[in-house]
Specification:
Layout (H helix, E strand, L loop, with lengths): L1 H25 L5 H25 L9 H25 L3 H12 L3 H42 L10 H9 L2 H14 L6 H12 L1 H12 L2 H6 L1 H25 L5 H12 L4 H9 L4 H28 L4
Helix pairs in contact: 1-9, 1-14, 2-7, 2-8, 2-9, 2-13, 3-4, 3-5, 4-5, 4-11, 4-14, 5-6, 5-7, 5-12, 9-13, 11-12, 11-14, 13-14
Length: 316
């Protein structure tokens, strides 16, 4: 019961903000124009600032964790590689392809990784989670742009690596990654007042994105996307965690505090940035929003299930 309550408390705050956005839209406070401009603000300003400061303020990667960090990077690359081949064969609507790929492999490790790791594994798991985040964040954000760009609806044209690359360079989040890495690697100084102001701005990104998501959410969209949702949610919340947890336990022999951040990395619900990027790339943002909300809801149960099993067999 304690684990179920913990999982619920991790999911409930974000879902509450989404529900508030839904009520504000019904009450006429959040208009369609307001939501559209708010989404543009999140994508073009707030999320790039958030990514920049997540990298700039990242703790140094502990190289004793290299094996685990490389495993997490491998999870990303293997998942993207398989999904990029499989999904277009079964999903013919291009606006859905990029959304499904993103939502089926990328979890919200920024939101779930640190608190879950600290609660379940203490300081050692928290340090490992921070190292994983610092190493994987640039890869996740860069791949996200290329996936969406490659499958953007371009009037029936075939995906072009050159066009995907050029579209990627136009993406503000990529520049947040690039500048964040430059400042992080070269330890460039940053004025204290700008650092404080930037972090304050970055903190608004996630709650505002959830609020605007609620302002656009429609329950009827879930019915239209039921097939894609079922496949995507089962893959993201059950299949991906099961496969990669098995690999972590039996191939890397991870246990205890070393396994906990990896478990969260592969089992966290879909990331909020997937929805924001779907809007900007004119992908199926309704499907992305449904993925985001329903993955948050059902993750409370799947996370509880995995925690219960892992504890019962003595792995955490």
């Amino acid at each position: 019961m304690e684990n179920l309550i913990f999982a619920f408390n991790a999911v409930a705050p974000a879902f509450s903000i989404v529900f508030l956005g839904f009520l504000l839209k019904r009450g006429g406070i959040l208009t369609e124009e307001f939501v559209a401009r708010g989404n543009a603000l999140c994508f073009n300003v707030l999320f790039p600032v958030l990514v920049f400061f997540n990298l700039y303020d990242a703790a140094s990667i502990d190289f004793t964790y290299v094996k685990i960090i490389l495993f997490c990077i491998g999870v990303i690359l293997i998942s993207v590689g398989i999904l990029t081949i499989v999904i277009p064969r079964f999903v013919k609507e291009r606006r859905k392809v990029g959304v499904m790929i993103q939502c089926m492999y990328r979890g919200n490790f920024m939101l779930y990784g640190l608190p879950f790791s600290k609660s379940l594994g203490g300081a050692q798991s928290l340090t490992l989670a921070t190292s994983i985040m610092a190493a994987t964040l640039p890869i996740l954000n860069t791949l996200a742009v290329f996936v969406y760009a490659a499958f953007a609806d371009v009037g029936g044209e075939k995906p072009s690596a050159k066009k995907a690359f050029l579209n990627a360079l136009k993406n503000p989040i990529i520049w947040g990654v690039i500048l964040g890495l430059i400042f992080y690697i070269f330890k460039l100084p940053f004025p204290t007042f700008l650092h404080t102001a930037g972090n304050d701005v970055a903190k608004t990104a996630t709650p505002l994105a959830f609020l605007f998501l609620g302002g656009q959410f429609e329950f009827r969209s879930a019915k239209r996307n039921m097939k894609e949702l079922l496949v995507g949610l089962i893959t993201k919340l059950v299949i991906v965690p099961s496969v990669f947890l098995w690999a972590a336990v039996y191939l890397l022999h991870l246990r205890g505090v070393d396994l906990i951040p990896v478990f969260i990395f592969v089992s966290a619900p879909t990331a909020i940035t997937n929805y924001q990027m779907a809007i900007q790339f004119d992908a199926d943002y309704e499907l992305a929003g449904d993925f985001l909300i329903y993955s948050m809801i059902f993750s409370a149960f799947t996370l509880f299930f995995f925690i219960y099993i892992l504890r019962n067999v003595g792995l955490i």
